[in-house]
Amino acid sequence: MSIELWYWPEIPGRGEFVRLFCEGFGIDYEDMARERGTEALVEHMHSLEGIRPFAPPYIVDEDVVIGQTAHILAYLSDKEGLGSGEPEIDLQLIQLQLDISDFVEEVHSVHHPIASELYYADQMEAAWERAQHFREQRIPKYLIHFDNALAAHGGPFSLGQQPTHVDTSLFQIMEGLDYMFPNYMKGMQGTWANLEGLQGAVPEIEGLVDYLASERRLEFNENGIFRYYEELDEQ
Ligand SMILES: N[C@@H](CCC(=O)N[C@@H](CS)C(=O)NCC(=O)O)C(=O)O
């Protein structure tokens, strides 16, 4: 039985981290709001009872209804037996996935440093300053951390030859950063060799070959998390 994925239909956003994992590892899912639209998503969210997800993405898997991207990926990985089989290593993979969530939040705060509810145009000056710090301090700090994690089992994936939920997420981060900061990322080429190797290896995962070439794969855009604003990139 396929799981339901509920996420905003027009952006890759955080939903894409779940899609990539499901597509790459053959997990059956229905992308509910892509089929039914934003209103259906809002209605569905409000119809949920009990402890509800705070925000999309969330999944429905029979009686299981959970949000939080990292939590969803940890749940699916465990359910499908796609971890290492060693609890202490699987917990470290979840730790990395939580680091990825923190990083994604910081990416969003680059173009929305004051408030998510305000337009980018209303916070451009603060965004410009934030982008500078983000490029100079935060991207290197996080990417070195992720690059070292990939080296721990010899690469190219987080468990050596075995890809996990961490790898599809790190791939999406690298693709997103290339879109958001093309000049900066070009200038840094070679700095994060393991991550660059991973970026080449993930698209070769069998389930992803077709997906990445399909219309199901949404392009990055300026409503999503990874946005391209020329002024926020290195000049
Ligand atoms: N920490 C959550 C964040 C979820 C989240 O912020 N979702 C966004 C879309 S990517 C949203 O719809 N937020 C609505 C809000 O924050 O009010 C996760 O990783 O899933």
UniProtKB/TrEMBL annotation:
This is Glutathione S-transferase. It comes from the Bacteria. GO terms for molecular function: glutathione transferase activity. Signal peptide: none annotated. It comes from Aurantiacibacter luteus. Residues 109-215 form the Glutathione S-transferase C-terminal domain. Keywords: Transferase. One of its GO terms (biological process) is glutathione metabolic process. It holds the Pfam family GST_C_3.
